Fold this protein.
Amino acid sequence: MPQRYALAAAALTLWACSTIAAADETKPSVARGRDIFMKVGCYHCHGTHGQGSGAGLKLAPDPLPTEAIAQFIRATTSTMPAYSEHILSDSQIADIAAYLGSIPAARSPDAIPALKSSSQHVKPQR
Ligand code: HEC
């Protein structure tokens, strides 16, 4: 009898875990978005934090709305390659947008004590 209960408990746990995982997949995820951003190569041109590089524009902080990002990714005909639904689903684009939206703005140099104090001591030489 106790074995039966253990089996039922294990089955219930499995069911609960799969339900939670399924529920999580429906909303955009920052962690998933970061993985996808690296996996499909966005970072090659836009930098690992969307900071931009010689090959791609700055995407974050303060990214475009998800809808605009999706439209651009699907339809671009310029330097950036377009990504079809076969490569990147709409929900994966929403994940990328969540990742880009999670990237904080750089701190002002004045908020970093070491930079603040050194900038007060460095005087231009004549
Ligand atoms: C081969 C380099 C390259 C790759 C890879 C790349 N991009 Fe781009 N991206 C660019 C360039 C260059 C632009 C500027 C527009 C243009 O010339 O195509 C751009 C523009 C954009 C824009 C529009 C930005 C704006 O402010 O107008 C978005 C959004 C964007 N990329 C997102 C992505 C995402 C997300 C990925 C990955 C799925 C990606 N890019 C992969 C090079 C790249």
Residues 40-42, 44-46, 55-57, 59, 64, 69, 72-73, 76, 78-80, 83, 88, 96 surround heme C (CB under 6 Å). The longest helix spans residues 2-25.
